């Protein structure tokens, strides 16, 4: 694996699951933003997993008392390795692991699609519930990002599906990945307190990038953000901040900013963007784990040693 491939470089692993092509996010040959207009989380999972059957999550009345990391760790103890097992068994493992995650992240213990369970748990309806559904589908996969690469490395060892998801969830906690939503929310809140102009100026003066804006794969704008803004009610502060950022930097909003707006308009928990990201991306994590199991080889790149050698 060339060092140039490690940071937005040339493709380093083959996958048939998703890609970004000419500014469009593609899920197995279909435009993700078109799919997100009506699909549920379960529809997206069935498509990306190529399950050939309906995907469904279970629930337990006691599941809400678990922490997400503890829930996955407990499941690993009773799970089988991923290698040498049929896709059907692996799909079931994925459903079981994500069911535990969904409960830990606030999905209501009721029958129905995941977006409806989350909407009930967070007291959302109308446009906000629709935006939540759309967000889960738009977040389902994004080719080989940091958390997905972590999942594939774990899967290449033959680790259980739950362990692969735990690897992905761990990578997602980093401020450069899943933590980007919190940074975008902080910028939005600062704009609320001091005005968009001052918020943008102070962020740039601190030699920081503008969180929630710009994306290397979408120079013309993140289509996932655009799809969410089509659903969300108008929010003058967000519009003013977007205009200020674009005027000053030329950057357009990405999915993190759209999730920050959903969080504030919907009066959601401050970590809602992380929860939505994890639950949406869990679809892709399972898909990539299963694809990696089928390749039957360990991901083990060599390091470019830069230290000293003995005489």
Automatic annotation (TrEMBL):
GO cellular component, one term: cytosol
GO biological process: carbohydrate metabolic process; tricarboxylic acid cycle
Gene3D superfamilies: Citrate Synthase, domain 1, Cytochrome P450-Terp, domain 2
Pfam families reported in the protein's UniProt record: Citrate_synt
Organism superkingdom: Bacteria
Keyword terms: Acyltransferase, Transferase
Entry's EC annotation: 2.3.3.16
Keyword Transport: no
Gene Ontology molecular function, alphabetical: citrate synthase activity
InterPro entries: Citrate_synth-like_lrg_a-sub (IPR016142), Citrate_synth-like_sm_a-sub (IPR016143), Citrate_synthase (IPR002020), Citrate_synthase_sf (IPR036969)
Pathway note: Carbohydrate metabolism; tricarboxylic acid cycle; isocitrate from oxaloacetate: step 1/2
Family of the protein in this entry: Belongs to the citrate synthase family.
Listed name of the protein: citrate synthase (unknown stereospecificity)
Species whose genome carries this gene: Novosphingobium fluoreni
């Amino acid at each position: 694996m060339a060092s140039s491939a490690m940071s937005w470089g040339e493709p380093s692993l083959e996958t048939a699951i998703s890609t970004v092509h000419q500014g469009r996010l593609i899920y197995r040959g279909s435009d993700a933003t078109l799919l997100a207009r009506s699909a549920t989380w379960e529809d997206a999972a069935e498509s990306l997993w190529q399950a050939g059957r309906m995907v469904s999550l279970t629930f337990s009345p006691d599941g809400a008392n678990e922490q997400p990391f503890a829930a996955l760790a407990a499941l690993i103890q009773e799970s089988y390795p991923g290698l040498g097992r049929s896709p059907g068994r692996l799909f079931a493992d994925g459903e079981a692991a994500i069911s535990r995650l969904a409960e830990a992240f606030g999905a209501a213990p009721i029958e129905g699609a995941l977006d409806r369970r989350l909407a009930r748990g967070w007291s959302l309806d109308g446009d906000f519930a629709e935006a939540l559904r759309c967000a889960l589908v738009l977040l389902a996969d994004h080719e080989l990002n940091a958390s997905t690469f972590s999942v594939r490395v774990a899967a290449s060892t033959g680790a259980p599906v739950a362990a692969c998801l735990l690897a992905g969830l761990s990578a997602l906690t980093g401020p450069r990945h899943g933590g980007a939503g919190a940074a975008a929310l902080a910028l939005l809140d600062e704009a609320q307190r001091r005005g968009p102009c001052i918020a943008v100026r102070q962020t740039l003066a601190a030699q920081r990038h503008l969180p929630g804006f710009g994306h290397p794969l979408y120079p013309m704008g993140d289509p996932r953000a655009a799809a969410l803004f089509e659903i969300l009610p108008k929010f003058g502060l967000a519009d003013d901040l977007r205009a200020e950022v674009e005027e000053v930097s030329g950057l357009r909003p990405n999915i993190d900013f759209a999730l920050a707006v959903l969080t504030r308009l919907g009066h959601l928990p401050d970590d809602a963007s992380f929860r939505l990201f994890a639950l949406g991306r869990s679809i892709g994590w399972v898909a990539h784990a299963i694809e990696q199991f089928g390749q039957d080889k360990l991901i083990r790149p060599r390091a470019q040693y830069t230290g000293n050698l003995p005489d």
